[in-house]
Amino acid sequence: MRFGDWLEYWYETHSKPKIRPTTQLGYESRIRLHIVPEIGNIPLNKLTQNDLQQFYARLKKNGRKTLTERFGEGLSDRMVRMCHATCRTALEKAVQEGLIRTNPAIGCKLPPKRAREMQVLDRDELQRFLIQAQAEGYYELFLLDLATGLRRGEITALQWDDLDFETGVLNVNKQVYQVNGELQFSEPKTKNSIRKIVLPPSVVEVLKEYKKTVNSQWMFPSPVKEDRPLTPGVVRKRLQLILEHAGCKQVRFHDLRHTFATLALQNGMDVKTLSAMLGHVSAATTLDIYTHITDDMQRTAAANIDRGIGKAALPEGGSELGRETAPGQPDKPRMTDFKPVMSRRRAGTGCISSKGPNLWEGRYSPMWIDGKKHSRNVYAHTREECEEKLIVLIAEMKAELAELKRHKMQSESQPQAKEKRTKKSK
Length: 426
Fold this sequence. Notes:
Helix content: 40-55%
Structural class: mainly alpha
């Protein structure tokens, strides 16, 4: 049996049924583009560690099939390691089946594993980011993420039924992801990712007001199809635009999760509680990721104990025990004079324009049941007042449109029901 034949059998029979569609795409790409063309013709029982080692070296040197002008001819260290992991797991199953005696992938020398650099937004950046997010109509989404550390697929999958406004408890029990342009829904990939999070009261109040403007079961619906949530890809692109407009460094959506965790630890949250909120398998995972934060906290604690027991003198100007040298203690938040960039707003949130020194106009133009856009306006002396009036207008027009659609469906269904009764009587 050729190694390529075994690899494809192992993937289809033992691996594919256990993994998500997005993960399947990665496996299939590695097998089809890299592994089978290079070492697929070698007999399974003749494959050696040297064959694999030379294969990894070729991948690193000139294994890239596309975008060579942009990224170079060689594959990244991470991709080489992933090809190795696929080969090693498939060969381990061959050992268990008695097809080979030892796994030749064990002991191969691999490129070093480098964790992606973690970036967090500082306090000034956070203020500018949220101000800009509010101007672009995405304030509630990013505020909720910075208050909970939810993953991108988890926050886009939220429905209003998942939040208890009385207790502030948010149920995280599903995720959404995109495969070939189609949205797929599933449970989170680990048992610990299914969790309950208690939201800060201020965030609950923001979401309570925001709900009045949303006519969908989804907490963050698509502006195109209100019966579907925002796609993770749209959220990622919008994040980059908001960061750019706010003058913040470009970070990944996952770095908002790191920002939440860093602020939580610096403000005194214990690692066990943070681990449960993040949905990690254990607190050890959280400690491993945020070692640099917890190390600073431990040094601060040691310095405070030293002052308490050894009665060490406070540095000049120090007033509160341990506060002046504690890297884990947050600085007092400073207000910013940042003005948001007036860019394109999110679809479904209307538009606002200045009509003079003390006059602002808000307009909402949804598609009506007659297939045409119907516009209505509100006016105010300040932008803030105009935003508030526009929110009320949007809620009223959405409710009116929903009622018209309901009546239309009822009127269309009545002739059909009458026709069915006539046919039965005959």
